[in-house]
Every structure is written in C-alpha cells, then in structure tokens.
Amino acid sequence: MKIYFIGAGPGDPELITVKGLRLIEEADVILYADSLVNEQLFERRKRSAQLIKTAGMHLEEIVNVMVKNAKEGKKVIRVHTGDPAIYGAILEQISFLKKEEIEVEIIPGVSSVFAAAARLGTELTIPELTQTVILTRAEGRTPVPELEKLKDLAKHHCTVALFLSGTLTKKIVAEFLEAGWDERTPVAVVYKATWPDEKIVRTTLKNLDEAMKANGIRKHAMILAGWALDEQIYNRNYRSKLYDETFTHGYRKGVEIR
C-alpha cells in the first residue's frame, strides 16, 4: 500500500510536475486542499476518480479516508499547494500512515516563494549583495521556536521570504527595524502567484503595512524583503564567478587579463 503526496505548485495548473500530473490521471481517490489548489488540475482525472475536498476536515478525518481507501486497494493521492515540504503539514499525516504500515511517496512541487520570484522577474541571491535566503513566517497564533524569532533571523540582512504572514505586517516591520534594517529596504508582495487574479505590490519596509491595506491583501500572500528586490538591481554591475572569463573551473580555463 502506498499513498502519494503531490505538490501541486503555486496555482498555474501547468506548473505541476509531469510525474504529479500522471499520478492525478491514474488516481482512484484524490484528496486536496480545495481552498488553495487549482481545480483545473483535475480535468484530466479518470471519470471514476473520487474527488474529496479537505478544507473543512480535521486531521483524523483526512487520514481515515486515506487509510480506508488505500486498504481497499485504491490508488490514493493527497494534493497539497506549492511544495509539501514547506508548511505542508504532511509530517502529522505521514505519522498516522506509518502506524498503519502504509508507504508514502512525496512528489515535490513549485513553491510559492519561487513562483513569486519568477513573477517579479528577480533572483533572490545576488553576487556580492546576498547569498542567503531565509524561508520563515512571522509569529502569530502559531508560535515559532525561541531561536527563530524574526528579529533575530533578520539580523543576517539577507533576502527573507515570509509565508503565512499577511495579517502580521505591523509586527514584521517592527521586528525588521529592531534588527537594524533600513526602512527604505525594498519589499515585494505577490498575492496568489500565477493565479488569474494575481496581484503584485512593490513597496518599502516602511510602507509595507499601508500598501497591504491599500491593496486589500491579508492572505495568500508571499512577502519578499531585502535588497535583492530592488527594481534598480539590473542597472548595477553584480557579477558571479561562474561566467567570469578570468575564473577557472572544471569546464573552462580562465583567461589571463593583462
């Protein structure tokens, strides 16, 4: 017995992996987070396939449905938004399934953080500017470990991607400023990246809360902060070693400049 957890990607149905789409086409039972996953993904499913929406179900209900159908010999898939490894809440589901001796295979997907960067037309790691991206969330009803407070993570002054934090912008701004960030630091917010109603907002740390309110964004938002988000980045001469003609690596000998 095996159950597949599939990353559906950020919204655009064409951004699912080939393997993920094949499994959808083969599945007998499909459980999906209907508040987040684009239902166009299921247009190529078998006519006999059972579609089960899980937004209104609690953990035990979801797992019981998966276990029951898997034990009946059906091909069961669980479809998550983005990539299941990031805030996917799959660990708790897999723990139950392991107790039932049901094998699990995870099919990765395109995370909203990378879809957002693509829609912004930017690279999150810029040579000589920042080589680190922190994926995190602001602390709200769900606590974060003591050593992972946003004000402490922000002290690295790298690119920061904030999931599930659209209602906590005042807190975000306060913690970044406490970490020593310039209030002029570029921030980009991508609402429902790759969906038809996608919205992109470019602002600064100082104006983040106001910009979110003005655009009516409170959820489904990816917040990216840091100087890699500067719209003038392409007017500056940041160069990597990879394509530097003087840099020698395993595939090319560097040219000596005299």
Automatic annotation (TrEMBL):
GO terms for biological process: cobalamin biosynthetic process; methylation. Keywords: Cobalamin biosynthesis, Methyltransferase, S-adenosyl-L-methionine, Transferase. It comes from the Bacteria. GO terms for molecular function: precorrin-4 C11-methyltransferase activity. Its EC number is 2.1.1.133. InterPro entries: 4pyrrol_Mease, 4pyrrol_Methylase_sf, 4pyrrole_Mease_sub1, 4pyrrole_Mease_sub2, Cbl_synth_CobM/CibF, Siro_Cobalamin_biosynth, Uropor_MeTrfase_CS. Residues 2-208 form the Tetrapyrrole methylase domain. Pathway: Cofactor biosynthesis; adenosylcobalamin biosynthesis. Transmembrane segments: none annotated. Belongs to the precorrin methyltransferase family. NCBIfam families: cobM_cbiF. This is Precorrin-4 C(11)-methyltransferase. The lineage of its organism: Bacteria, Bacillati, Bacillota, Bacilli, Bacillales.
